Amino acid sequence: MKKFIIAVSSLIIILAGCKHNNVNEKDIVAKVNDAVLTKSEIKELMEENNFKGKDSLYVIKAYVRNWVVNQLLKQEAENNLNDLDRARIEKLVNEYKTDLFVNKYKQLYIKQKLDTAISDTELVSFYHSYNFDYRLKQPIIKAVEVKVPKRSYKYYEIRKLMKDADKNFDEIKKICSEHKYYLSDFGERWINFEPFKENYKIENKNLQKGKLFIKSAPADTLVDEMLYVSDFMLPGDTIPYELVKDNLKKIILHKRKVSLFYQLVNNTYQDALSNKNFYIDKTYVIKENEE
Fold it and tell me: The whole model's pTM is what?
């Protein structure tokens, strides 16, 4: 319903003064003086906002009621506002209309001209140029984690292999698969260290590459958890490229859009200037050294 209210509010403002010539009487839903609301407009509203089902009739009735009330209020305003207020409103309406046209054209221009292809080379270059802006706020790690029952006859073998999990990973994976032990290498991705910090009671200062941390269960019937840290980064370090790659793409596309906007504005101005399609008093012309 909130979606409907927003749509109604917006469309009533836009359609408040709509007039139709030669409208078929059968197509009229409501009429206030010269302003007419048609079935085709109602249908368009419903389709654009995807109003369907049992509530659709209520939505239509509410919209029609609001449209009529706004037309009547508009009529009262026109009868009671002074010329200055009317002039100000007309100016605002014209400015709003201009903004709608201009913004729509800008969107179409960007859609036609924007190159969305971004090579890895460009992304890496951009990352190295601006990586000082990307700093870690929390530690991250690359790790391998296993959980092995202490009574398992493979327990000590796994524990020994986990001391160099990078080298022995295939063998660790094979044993864990055969015996249904928990194993995660996190796809060699950088992951947040905080959950492991609490579980294994590890401080940032104790992080080391190639170090095995063990959370030992108090009884032989329970499971030991083992965390091998392949790599780590601390708060203040530059965020790894792979973690900011998607954001870099968004930034590059935004920069391209901004560049296209400037290009459109400048080209439009220069073309009109060459063709003498407009006039500006020379007092108000921006000189090259002022830009």
Answer: 0.67
